[in-house]
Amino acid sequence: MQAVVVHDHLLIIRFKRSTSPLRSEQFAKMPNKVISSSTIKTISKGGRQITLRYATKTDSWNRYNLAADVQEKFAKAMEKADVPANATTAIMA
Asked: Which strands form 89-92's sheet, in the order they lie side by side?
C-alpha cells in the first residue's frame, strides 16, 4: 500500500497488485489522477470524520465496482492506519 497526500484534506491510497519488477516499475510511474469515486463509509479517527472512498475512474482506467470484501479490508486497514491530521477523505485508487 502506498499513500500519497494530494491536497490538504485528501489522501490517495494506491495498492500494488503485483510483485514482478516490470509491474512494480509501471506502478511507480502511474500518476492515476482520480476523476471520480464512490463512498465506502465514514469512520471516526482521532475525534474527526474520515470519508473512505474508492476510485471509479482515473486518467488511466475505469472501475465499475469494488467487491464488498475488498471495501471492508480497506476500511479495516484505514481504521488502523496512521492518517495525516489534515486528511478528511481517503480514496483507494
From this structure: 2-7, 10-14, 89-92, 48-58, 34-45
Q: How many CA within 13 A on the CB side of residue 12?
A: 17
Question: E strands along the chain, which residues?
Answer: 2-7, 10-14, 34-45, 48-58, 89-92
Q: What is the pLDDT of residue 26?
A: 45
Mean of pLDDT values over 32-44: 91
Cα separation, 37 vs 34, in Å, equals 7
Contact, 5 vs 87, CB < 8 A? yes
